[in-house]
Design brief:
Elements: E1 4-10, E2 14-21, E3 26-32, H1 38-53, E4 60-66, H2 69-75, E5 82-87, H3 93-96, E6 121-124, E7 127-128, E8 134-136, H4 140-152, E9 157-161, H5 170-182, E10 187-190, H6 191-194, H7 200-230, E11 237-240, E12 246-248, H8 249-254, H9 264-277, E13 283-288, E14 293-299, E15 302-303, E16 305-306, E17 309-311, E18 315-316, E19 327-329, E20 333-334, E21 337-339, E22 345-349, E23 355-361, H10 380-386, E24 393-394, E25 399-400, H11 403-418, H12 422-444, E26 456-460, H13 464-475, E27 479-482, H14 489-495, E28 499-510, H15 516-535, E29 544-554, E30 561-565, H16 573-589, E31 597-608, E32 629-638, E33 642-650, E34 657-659, E35 662-665, E36 670-673, E37 678-681, E38 687-690
Parallel strand pairs: 1-4, 4-11, 5-6, 5-9, 9-10, 13-26, 26-27, 33-35
Antiparallel strand pairs: 1-2, 2-3, 7-8, 11-12, 13-14, 14-15, 14-21, 16-20, 17-19, 18-21, 22-23, 24-25, 27-38, 28-31, 29-30, 29-31, 32-33, 34-37, 35-36, 37-38
Helix pairs in contact: 1-7, 2-7, 4-5, 9-14, 10-11, 10-12, 11-12, 12-13
Length: about 700
């Protein structure tokens, strides 16, 4: 019997879906996103996929989902009206933050408004000592009074974060229980259920983000599950988290802060698996969609990960030295640099006469001017249409492009005001967008002391292959890798992910005086918690793999470095753990101190071990194979070359080598091979371009 798993990724312009059956066959779908109800596009695409694959709904074993609902809620400031219960005297923690700015000399920077207005932050007269001793218990009447005020003010969701609750959650748990019982209509998030970790601002901010996005993400996932049941799919819905793993939809509904960048990380996970399949250990994963472009590093076969992320509008660069630019979340995540330059990013001229691209996007509605569905502002897609890079239809024929509309938008809004012809203005849009995207790649390479010329650029997303070779030239990269279906690769990456859950226990102390008995007890408690949580989702203990880390720092420092440890520690392990920490510290900062080392937290990542996706074993019989060269059209590659008559090759039929200029087309994406470059297939049906 054929069974199948379906990966779905909602983007700003298109929703991508991939079906993988138990025979290794893959089928793809790309449908227009539905911003008013993102789940509608998912259901439409699933029905289309099942019909294409000749399968019924009963054959679906899992639906894997990446969603932008959490990030869009933050970006558009459309989350719940929130309240905060905190220790008296600490109501301004969200306002104070880290007492720094992201760019010290930027006098025009505006600090993001806290997600909880000050009048809705209420101090409670409880107190917990730094050692975990209850100095003042929670008073029920005080919690009830705060709740009555919140109810009268229309508060929808409340965050609870008390001082030192990471050492002893008694007061916070008591307040949560009182509030839930008295005000069941208001959502509640306690910090110890999300982040039982030292640092008051980080814990408060993470809890506030969870409370802010919880109602919208919960309602969305509930609607999606109802929709899936409505079309007959009873398979479990798993949601991609910010670390590239998968979790049950129920977990995402309770702890949405772990899913803010849901989906984006899945492409990087797929990149790591693809690199392992084709023996490429060093990759720059570059993903360009309709709204944003992002980059991440796969080095020595390992993904770059972090335990902290700041959500910012426009650009998010994961530098160790840039802080306070957005809403902080202390959650496991794939370390990705992201810029607001996607295919739908709008190009405009500022008051000084300079051309800018993004971060505002035309999205799926009204879309770029070339879509002909209401958009009139020029976008990156319009520039690519004017220059001849894109075919006359997108998404397998679902969308016909209006070339004249694209030329008019670029001509009226850009070319005429700048005194240029339409082609020159379109090249300018493309150049500015490429410069923006190169910043993201430099943020994960050059800014970390890594030379991008030593890496292969793996390009995916609907528009990544259109720009990848130009970006590679800018950065001195010689090889560009395009996967079999780059336009839906993020959805494919979800099929490469495993179910994961994360747990943490505060463990302060000095490494040289490490109490191994207490550490092993904490490890055992975390293990039991992980097994119980995953058993509740139907996973057997024998299928679960546990990986532990110890957060370490030099004494007096304010940030940690996680070091892998075993599930059972002995006194002799202290020296080797210290050496691992020193090596990791030197790799990050270039030097290491001789100071004492502090322990901060013990972390556990529990993974349900599944089949490792081997990209070389995947097949696709979805697309009609036609003769190689299906057409020719004029393409404007540069100001120097002007228009060049270029062969258009069917991607599915490509089975040899070609020297650029050439364009390889498929229903999911378009690969641009510039003049002088050469393209060839590898054993996994990827296209490798040499520059």
């Amino acid at each position: 019997m054929r069974t199948a798993r379906i990966g779905t990724d909602i983007g700003g312009t298109f929703t991508d879906l991939v079906l993988l059956d138990n025979l290794g066959q893959t089928f793809y779908a790309k449908v227009s996103s539905t911003p008013s109800d993102p789940g509608e596009a998912v259901l439409t695409g699933i029905r289309q996929l099942l019909e294409t694959a000749d399968l019924d709904v009963g054959s679906v074993t899992h639906v894997l989902h990446g969603t932008t609902v959490g990030s869009n809620t933050l970006l558009q400031q459309q989350g719940a009206k929130c309240g905060l219960l905190t220790t008296r005297g600490f109501r301004d923690v969200l306002e104070i933050g880290r007492l720094r700015t992201p760019v010290i000399f930027d006098l025009l920077w505006d600090k993001p408004e806290p997600l909880v207005a000050r009048r809705y932050r209420i101090g409670i007269g409880e107190r917990m000592s730094a050692g975990g001793e209850v100095l003042a218990p929670v008073e029920r009447d005080e919690i009830i009074a705060a709740g009555e005020f919140f109810r009268a003010e229309g508060i929808e969701s409340v965050a609870i974060c008390f001082l030192n609750s990471y050492r002893n959650p008694e007061n916070e748990r008591a307040a949560e229980a009182i509030f839930r019982e008295a005000f069941p209509e208001i959502w509640v998030t306690s910090s110890v259920s999300v982040l039982p970790e030292i640092r008051e601002y980080e814990r408060t901010s993470t809890t506030a983000v969870n409370a802010y996005v919880l109602p919208s993400l919960r309602k969305y996932l509930q609607r999606l599950e109802t929709g899936l049941r409505g079309i007959g799919i009873t398979a479990p819905l798993l949601v991609s988290n910010s670390n590239g793993g998968l979790a049950a939809a129920s977990t995402a509904q309770e702890k949405p802060v772990f899913f803010i960048t849901s989906g984006r990380a899945a492409g990087v996970v797929g990149a790591g698996r693809l690199g392992g399949s084709v023996d490429m250990a060093d990759l720059i994963a570059f993903d360009m969609g309709g709204t944003t472009a992002s980059a991440s590093l796969v080095q020595n076969g390992k993904l770059t990960r972090s335990n902290e992320y700041e959500f910012r509008a426009g650009i998010s660069t994961p530098s160790r030295f840039i802080k306070a630019g957005g809403y902080l979340m202390r959650v496991p995540n794939v370390d990705v640099a992201e810029v607001g330059s996607g295919a739908g990013s709008i190009a405009a001229i500022d008051e000084g006469g300079l051309l800018h691209v993004g971060p505002t996007s035309a999205g799926a509605d009204p879309g770029p001017a070339c879509y002909g569905i209401g958009g009139t502002k020029p976008t990156v897609t319009d520039a690519n249409v004017v220059l001849g890079y894109l075919p006359s239809v997108l998404a397998g024929g679902q969308m016909k492009l209006d070339v004249d509309g694209a030329r008019k938008a670029i001509g009226d809004k850009l070319a005429t005001p700048l005194g240029l012809d339409v082609e020159a203005a379109a090249v300018g849009v493309r150049d500015v967008a490429n410069a923006n995207m190169a910043r993201a790649i430099r943020a994960v390479t050059v800014e970390r002391g890594v030379d991008p010329r030593d890496f292969t650029l793996l390009a995916f997303g609907g528009s990544g292959p259109v720009h990848a070779c130009d970006l590679a030239k800018m950065l001195g990269i010689k090889t560009v890798l395009f996967p079999r279906a780059p336009g839906v690769f993020t959805a494919m990456g979800m099929l490469a992910g495993n179910v994961e859950r994360y747990f943490i226990r505060a463990f302060p102390g000095l490494l040289h005086a490490l109490d191994t008995t207490a550490a092993n007890a904490a490890i055992a408690d975390l293990s039991d918690e992980a097994y119980a949580a995953l058993a509740g989702e139907g996973y057997d203990r024998s299928a679960i793999s546990l990986a532990f880390e110890l957060d370490l720092r030099f004494r007096g420092q304010d940030s940690e470095v996680p070091i892998a440890i075993s599930a059972s520690l002995g006194d002799a392990d202290q020296a080797s753990i210290r050496q691992q920490f020193l090596d990791a510290y030197i790799a990050l900062y270039g030097y290491a101190s001789t100071d004492q080392v502090e322990t901060v937290n013990i972390r556990l990542s529990a993974t349900v071990v599944g089949d490792i996706l081997d990209f070389k074993k995947l097949t696709s019989s979805q697309f009609d194979i036609r003769d190689g060269v299906i057409d020719h059209r004029d393409v404007y590659f540069s100001r120097e070359s002007g228009w060049i008559r270029t062969p258009i090759i069917d991607r599915a039929a490509f089975d040899g080598e070609v020297t650029g200029p050439a364009i390889l087309q498929s229903p999911d994406s378009t690969i641009v091979v510039p003049p002088g470059a050469s393209a060839a297939l590898d054993a996994a049906q990827n296209i490798i371009v040499s520059l």
